[in-house]
Design a protein that fits this description.
Elements lengths: L3 E6 L7 H14 L4 E6 L4 H10 L4 E3 L6 H12 L4 E5 L19 H8 L3 E6 L5 H11 L7 E9 L2 H14 L4 E7 L8 E2 L2 E2 L8 H15 L2 H7 L1 E2 L16 E5 L9 H9 L3 E5 L11 E4 L8 H6 L1 H12 L4 E4 L1 H6 L2 E3 L5 E3 L5 E5 L6 E9 L11 E8 L2 E6 L4 E5 L4 E5 L1 E3 L2 E4 L2 E5 L1
Parallel strand pairs: 1-4, 1-5, 2-3, 2-4, 5-6, 6-7, 11-12, 11-13, 13-14, 14-24, 15-17
Antiparallel strand pairs: 1-10, 8-9, 15-16, 17-20, 18-19, 18-21, 19-25, 21-22, 23-24
Helix pairs in contact: 1-2, 1-7, 5-6
Amino acid sequence: MVAPGLVLAAPASGSGKTLMTLGLLAHLAGRGLAVASAKVGPDYIDPAFHAAATGRPCLNLDGWAMREACLHALVDELSAGVDVVVCEGVMGLFDGADVPAGERPGTTADIAALTGWPVVLVVDGRGMTGSAAAVLQGFARFRPGVAVAGVIFNRVAGDKHKRMIAEACARACPEVEILGFLPRLEELAVPNRHLGLVQACEHPDLAAFLAAAARAIADNLAVERLLALARPASLAGAPRPLLPPLGQRIAVARDEAFAFAYPAVLEGWRRTGAEIAAFSPLADEAPQGDAIYLPGGYPELHAGRLAANGRFLGGLHTAAAAGTPIFGECGGYMVLGRGLTDADGHRHAMAGLLELETSFARRKLHLGYRQARLLADSPLGTAGDLYRGHEFHYATVDTQAGESLFAVADAAGTDLGQAGLRQGSVMASFIHLIDRR
């Protein structure tokens, strides 16, 4: 049986859709429902909170970076063996990458149109009454094929405010059902880091936070009406790996410093028969496998500990000397370099397997989708192979030397030059790879 699904979206970032999604997931799971969740776009932080709420991995659905066949397979996987699928959008419903005409920009609306899942819009009601109805009407009728079936108003002041919004919406957009009004819930705010939340594993009392969010949903939303809006996706596909497996037994760094690995990538490797052997660099564990993957995360917050962990760094050196493929992304890239300077200006010696010095003392945001072409044969593929991914970091490069890994362009096709480094069997870049082309 294919489970019904829906998409929680918003007119803009900051409307409260993440809190709404987490509260709904926790509430449904607390009722004993099997709930699968998805997140639109290249995000690692929100999916970890989803997983904590549901007890299941949250899968990313990326309309720009992923092949359509892979999207079909992931939606099919999400919809199997559960009662409902809840997909959280990214940014505003119609916001996406700057792409050439004819390409999907990776919007939440693209995923809603592809799956057929109806949209529940989360609107920040602060400072609005009749204007809230105008926002709802505009979003509901903007794009044929994207069904805005319900709306939740967030940060509403009181009963009078609710009544004025409800009356305006009933006149302007009666086809969209109002599912509830949430008051301002400042006590449920989650601390931010960079452009996103702190990691779920760092939250001081995640269980209490999720329980409070679930109560807020139960007290303020017509949950049964919301569930009645959900519809099965009209997609199916055979599972396929997003990225080629690096080896047969892949040692994957997994802890607070290296948390940014897509579950769909790891599961794709497992489906090829590869074994995932998780290890913790922060616990000074050495990687054990015929390939090593150092995903992104926040190594800059733990640079002193990592620099002192001899078993971890020694294991990388032993593996590199034996020709074991070692692949690093973003945080993993920096750790494979010679040194990492933290925000306080203190330099910490890293693995030294690549000629790279990075620094957070002079922060500069690098953000956006990337198209990456392999410059030489490697465990990732053959020269000329194309990948799509995403770059998001504040680190600056002080020094870099050696053979580049990729030729890179942005989503619009603008040439960004070469990126990453390769030395022997060690290869890495700031790009988080999502899928091949």
